[in-house]
Amino acid sequence: MYTTKNEEKIRQVAGIIEWSCKNQQFSQIDQLIKKGYEFVYQYLRQHKQIDFDHFMKSYAKRHKSKVIKEIELIYQNIILWYLCERENIHFDTGSVAWQSFQEVLCTSLNEIEIQIVMFSEIMLVKHKKEIENFYIEYNIPRNANFDSLGAFFEYLICD
User: Fold this and answer.
1) Could you give the CA distance from residue 100 to residue 87 in angstroms, rounded to a whole number?
2) Which string of DSSP letters, residue by residue, matches 1-27?
3) Looking at the predicted structure, is the pLDDT value of residue 2 above 90?
4) 3-class SS of residue 120
5) What's the Cα-to-Cα distance from 72 to each of 68, 78, 109, 143, rounded to whole Å?
6) pLDDT(159) > 70
């Protein structure tokens, strides 16, 4: 799902958020948001109430020359939602856009649960022999450190 590098960045951001919430000091988070999610930050400053449908249409209009990836829009929505919650700004939870966004988040969370089960210690023990045979059959070094599934596939293909 994420590379090791991305996971480390996610942990760092989570640590900044945790520290900021405990100390009620949000300047570091705001700097990150202004830099990485400038449209969200400006949109929030210009609107008293937030409508996710209007936000997504505005975002799409601003980026009309390029195709917007779904994951990019999800990240934009997450940041907007976070800021609305943090700053106690009302947002419309009855809109179709909001409902769709919630469904996407729930699906992602369900996928995480499935991944936790699939890659658990129990599953490792259960399939230990199959895994060992896989390593032998494809000549995979035991100490290989692949930082993503793509790097692993590349190793298999190029070998």
Assistant:
1) 23
2) ---HHHHHHHHHHHHHHHHHHHHT--H
3) no
4) coil
5) 7, 10, 17, 34
6) no
How far, in Å, CA of 30 to CA of 37, rounded? 10
Widest pairwise Cα distance in the chain: 61
Query: Closest Cα to residue 78, out of 36, 138, 21, 27?
Result: 36
Residue 29: CB atoms within 10 Å: 19
Residue 88, sorted as left (phi over 0), alpha (psi -120 to 50) or beta, turns out to be left
- What is the DSSP code (8-state) at residue 89? -
Measured distance between the N- and C-terminal CA atoms of the chain, rounded to whole angstroms:
23
The residue among 37, 109, 38 whose CA lies nearest residue 75 is 37
Which residues pair with residue 50 across a beta bridge? 91
What does the block give as tokens for 31? 């700097």
91 — phi, psi (to 5°)?
A: -135, 150
Residue 73: closest CA among 57, 85, 89, 88: 57
Beta-bridge mates of residue 75 = none
pLDDT tens digits for 61-119? 888 777 778 788 888 988 998 999 898 998 888 888 888 888 887 777 666 667 777 77
For residue 41, is pLDDT > 90? yes
- Non-local (6+) Cβ contacts of 135 within 8 A are 142
